[in-house]
Design a protein that fits this description.
alpha+beta; 4 helices; 8 strands; globular
């Protein structure tokens, strides 16, 4: 299932260590964006799986969202968490714009009224293996209740400390 991710992987990754790809100073922020997503229903009522959403949008260098935190000023690092799977990708947000300005919508059957903002992305990297958040739970300061850690992934996108982003990305590079 995860082999598809390698096909659209961009060589410039969003490495936590800075040795490969973009380092922390390139983002100009001590915060990062966390985006959670799952399956959706399209305008026809058909289910669109989270994996299809991920590959279509990130493969097009864009992410559609319901809102953007005021502190999310590009360029900013972003981690993508798929419900029930884990952190599956990272990217750099380089711009924000209304979805009405998109020339081509990657998933035309999605109800765009739900997603008024498009995040323009570069340095997209899909992980070969998802990061299980539980493996780094003790390192994540934005999760206050470790027993109910899933609550922290609701109401995203949200800002998280850059150190938490780095812990998640580092785990993608050096899994257990």
């Amino acid at each position: 299932m995860w082999a598809l991710a390698v096909e659209i992987r961009v060589t410039r990754g969003c490495s936590a260590g800075g040795s490969v790809g973009v380092n922390q100073n390139d983002y100009g922020s001590d915060r990062a964006l966390l985006v959670a997503f799952g399956d959706l229903f399209d305008r026809t009522g058909a289910i669109v799986r989270g994996r299809a959403i991920l590959t279509a949008l990130l493969g097009s260098g864009v992410w559609l969202t319901t809102r953007v935190p005021k502190a999310a000023v590009p360029p900013i690092a972003a981690a993508f968490y798929q419900t029930g799977i884990g952190v599956v990708a990272c990217a750099r947000v380089v711009g924000l714009r209304p979805t009405t300005s998109l020339v081509r919508v990657p998933l035309p059957d999605l109800p765009l009224k739900m997603f008024p903002t498009a995040l323009d992305l570069d340095s997209v990297r899909l992980f070969e293996r998802p990061v299980d958040v539980r493996s780094v739970l003790d390192q994540l300061s934005f999760i206050h209740n470790k027993k109910q850690w899933g609550q922290a992934f609701r109401y995203t996108p949200r800002m998280i400390p850059k150190s938490d982003y780095d812990a998640l990305i580092r785990q993608s590079e050096y899994p257990n």
